[in-house]
Amino acid sequence: MKIAGTNLFASISATTQVCLTDDNGYAILVKCSTAGGSETDVYAAGCLLVRTDTATLYQNTNTTDGAAPTWTINGTGASGASGALGGSGVSGATVSGASGASGASGASGVKGESGASGA
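and the corresponding structure tokens:
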């Protein structure tokens, strides 16, 4: 169901229309049908722009009224800080096994012959 409205939008270009302005005449609510909203001396700081072809809401994050707008997608928060890393786990105990028994001694070698007696 469509609702009959007042159609407050006024065209400022082929693709951009202004709905509301502030006391200084700068736009505070705008819609565009394609990439638009690049005009200077038009947008208030904080102006909201609805891009109807992509269903995206932008906010002018430039802090000077009338300056070239800096459009930032609204509704997507910045990433939060990373959490602290967990501590190292406890090291496991070192267990040494008992030493094994010594091996048996090897057999003695064969005794060689005695040498000749001196003269």
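(Above: one complete record from the training split.) The first strand starts at residue 10 and ends at 11.
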